């Protein structure tokens, strides 16, 4: 007499795959490198330490990257992607038709996100800063901010002759003022963020919120 095996038992009996999806393996590799770079610096970190922390073979590292510098470039792109996602989530939490709230939230979140991650920022972008010309990361953030300003303009919330110029002024103000707070050894950006929000609203011709 044959005994039927239930579908559940069949699934349980099947061996689990030994390899992780490529995107998971890559994320774990980059996360391991990021942790080591933050704790002991880029120069002091070896590729052997990175792969040991990520629990992968050294060949896996070279499958994705040619060197630590190559990985730094990818970590910089990852940093900007996470930064933009944080801003997008903050803006999306505001009412869709409240452009003042969206812009204010963008500024507040930008200040706090920069305060939270400036050590990583300085590691992955060692050779340029947020005001440098030809900075693709800056351009991506500016494009997001410009979209807010143009959206508010179309909705009649403000009237700007040159939205691009205003976006650059807000961007520079946010990062420049936040750098001053970092240099002073502070980590609470709430008062600074509120001051920048009110200054930007006045620049747009709006009363303080």
From TrEMBL:
<protein>
    <submittedName>
        <fullName>Transcriptional regulator, TetR family</fullName>
    </submittedName>
</protein>
<feature type="domain" description="HTH tetR-type">
    <location>
        <begin position="23"/>
        <end position="83"/>
    </location>
</feature>
<feature type="region of interest" description="Disordered">
    <location>
        <begin position="1"/>
        <end position="20"/>
    </location>
</feature>
<dbReference type="InterPro" id="IPR050109">
    <property type="entry name" value="HTH-type_TetR-like_transc_reg"/>
</dbReference>
<dbReference type="InterPro" id="IPR036271">
    <property type="entry name" value="Tet_transcr_reg_TetR-rel_C_sf"/>
</dbReference>
<dbReference type="GO" id="GO:0003700">
    <property type="term" value="F:DNA-binding transcription factor activity"/>
</dbReference>
<dbReference type="InterPro" id="IPR001647">
    <property type="entry name" value="HTH_TetR"/>
</dbReference>
<keyword id="KW-0175">Coiled coil</keyword>
<dbReference type="GO" id="GO:0000976">
    <property type="term" value="F:transcription cis-regulatory region binding"/>
</dbReference>
<dbReference type="Pfam" id="PF00440">
    <property type="entry name" value="TetR_N"/>
</dbReference>
<feature type="DNA-binding region" description="H-T-H motif">
    <location>
        <begin position="46"/>
        <end position="65"/>
    </location>
</feature>
<dbReference type="InterPro" id="IPR009057">
    <property type="entry name" value="Homeodomain-like_sf"/>
</dbReference>
<dbReference type="InterPro" id="IPR023772">
    <property type="entry name" value="DNA-bd_HTH_TetR-type_CS"/>
</dbReference>
<keyword id="KW-0238">DNA-binding</keyword>
């Amino acid at each position: 007499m044959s005994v039927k095996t239930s579908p559940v038992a069949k699934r349980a009996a099947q061996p689990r795959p030994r390899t992780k999806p490529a995107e998971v393996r890559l994320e774990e590799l980059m996360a391991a490198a990021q942790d080591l770079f933050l704790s002991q610096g880029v120069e002091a970190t070896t590729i052997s330490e990175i792969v040991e922390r990520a629990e992968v073979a050294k060949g896996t590292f070279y499958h994705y990257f040619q060197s630590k510098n190559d990985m730094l470039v990818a970590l910089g792109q990852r940093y900007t992607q996470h930064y933009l996602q944080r801003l997008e989530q903050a803006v999306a939490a505001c009412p869709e038709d409240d452009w003042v709230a969206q812009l204010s939230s963008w500024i507040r979140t930008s200040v706090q996100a920069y305060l939270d991650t400036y050590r990583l920022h300085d590691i992955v972008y060692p050779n340029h800063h947020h005001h440098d010309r030809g900075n693709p990361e800056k351009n991506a953030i500016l494009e997001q901010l410009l979209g807010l300003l143009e959206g508010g303009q179309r909705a009649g919330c403000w009237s700007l002759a040159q939205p691009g110029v205003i976006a650059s002024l807000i961007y520079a103000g946010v990062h420049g003022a936040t750098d001053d707070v970092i240099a002073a050894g502070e980590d609470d950006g709430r008062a600074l963020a509120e001051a920048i929000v009110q200054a930007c609203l006045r620049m747009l011709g709006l009363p303080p919120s």
